[in-house]
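Entry 12.
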Amino acid sequence: MTEIFAEILGNAQDKVMDPVSGQGRCPYRSAKDICTAKFGCANREDPRGSRDSGAEPVCAHDGTLDFRGAWETRPENYQKTKEKIKDVRQQAKQTRKDRRAGMENKRTKTVTLFDRADEQRMRLASSCGRYGDCHECIVIVNQGAEALAPRTEFEAFLGENYRLACQAEIVDPEAEISFEPLIRAPRILETSLEKSIDLAPAITREGREVLCDGQVIDKYRGHIYGLAIDLGTTTVAANLFDLQTGKSIAIASFENPQRFGGSDVMHRISYDGGPHQGELHKVVINALNGEIEVLCQRYKFNRREIYEIVVAGNSTMRDLFFKGDVQPIGQRPYKSPIELAYIDGKRDSTALVAEARKLGLRAHPKCLVHGLPLIASHVGGDAAASLLALDISPDDADVVLLVDMGTNTEIVLAGQGRLMVASCPAGPAFEGGLVRHGMASYAGAIEMVAEDPAGGFQWRTIADGEPVGLCGSGLIDLLAVLRRSGRMNEKGALIREKGVRNTVVPVVPEHDIDISGQDISHLAQAKAASNAGQSILLRRFGVTVGDIKRLYLAGGFASHVDFDNAVAIGLLAAVDKDRMVRAGNTSLQGAGEALLNLDRRAHLEALVRRAEHIELESEADFFDIFVEGCLFKPMANIGAEKI
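Predicted 3D structure (tokens):
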């Protein structure tokens, strides 16, 4: 054995070994990065991702191996170790063989939801061969759950009406079963801001070499790409950039598949603290890898040509993404361990950096993933990215207000030397959760509602398809119409008709789409959180609505919100309409700027240090303001004393 290792070392040193350090390229890796080994290796991959492509296998390792001391093992242990390795491999091989054989036999006798999806031509993801390992084929069973067999051991991490399609056996084939993929593609919300960003990325090219911060990391393969990711609680969006030109190549968007762990951050924190810790990280990484694969196929490039990734997300979403401990964020003082370490002087920034391969992301082996810095508590990197996108500065004379609507709404008030932020736990009511017919902004969602002269409603859906439900902008319109028409009072109660109290108002009767009193209650609380955040920040800042020179509305459905209706129900401060701006997805825009320009990234670090975080619930009259905010009426113009 010693002689064998000595020979390997000799060959490696003769070929590519650094005689001083004892480190060098793998001896089985050719000058063209082709793997010439005749045995399996975890670093070996087909350049097009298909074993049947016929292309020569590529070595995906970073190229440096350390052979020093490789043979320094006690000779008497060789045989014992070899026998143990052999036994372990045989047992693992037999276990896999038995399991797959059992599954194949089972699949010949049973029909699963995945089989049903195939029949319906419903696209479901799976990278494990439908054996339950990858957890990518999660579906929501809307009807007929009782016709399915109990959950298997592979589905133990799921609750409520979520199932793995490959494991959910249909025991009653005659039953009507309705289900849909957990990962769906909502309408891609692009920023509406036209900005020119100077190109100064960390990844550059010199001739045939690709450099990261001046260090050579690869040979030029034809493309140098980067990804900007907006990791929202409800929706994930990714923008693929050409780092040589600064041009956006494509934007991908999908519903965050972490929903099985809860619709808001507090539920996901609780879920990740349970027996299935790590599942939330795994499922979103798998979903992003799926999108990367689709982009590679569509635009004809290799995933190894993605050299840098920037992620913007609230504190919980970001730390889950980076495999962090999110439990402290769920309890006072509601801060990430990263933020606590920064406050204690143990870190010089709340930003995070990790290697993509260690997170499980399929990109270049030396690709780095940058998590944008947090501001404070639940006000995370997504709000920080918005500061970049909108060029918000505390040094401006004018006061501007940013309302970034989402499951976790962020409020930013800046100008006159101050930068004040707050987080409002609005919940998912305006983004498809808690409302019976609520949904995210994808095809079939009713995005606009108006009063019909005949007493019903006029509406328009995304993509002009058959109505399926109501997205956020449609719900705002509907509430305003109900209030103006007198069918709902300012407390959100549906008005009695002919002595009978209505519990449900039909919106599209022919498609059984309606809104109930319970739905309205959830929407009122979501609205009140945003209302309270704006009211308290205006008061603490010492300004009134009339002092706001610009109100930016950002978030998942912001580009389609009717300002008049949002003001009428008290969702937005009553700023003059000509001062309101639909800003689009500012989080994704800001992440892109941080990807394309290192100076913008450094500017953001300095900016977040100046923010004053306001804990809304610490205000003595917070409950009174919240209750007032539940009323469906224009927001009171409070705000006066400067604190």
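Annotation: Residues 487 and 497 are 9 Å apart (CA to CA). The radius of gyration is 28 Å.
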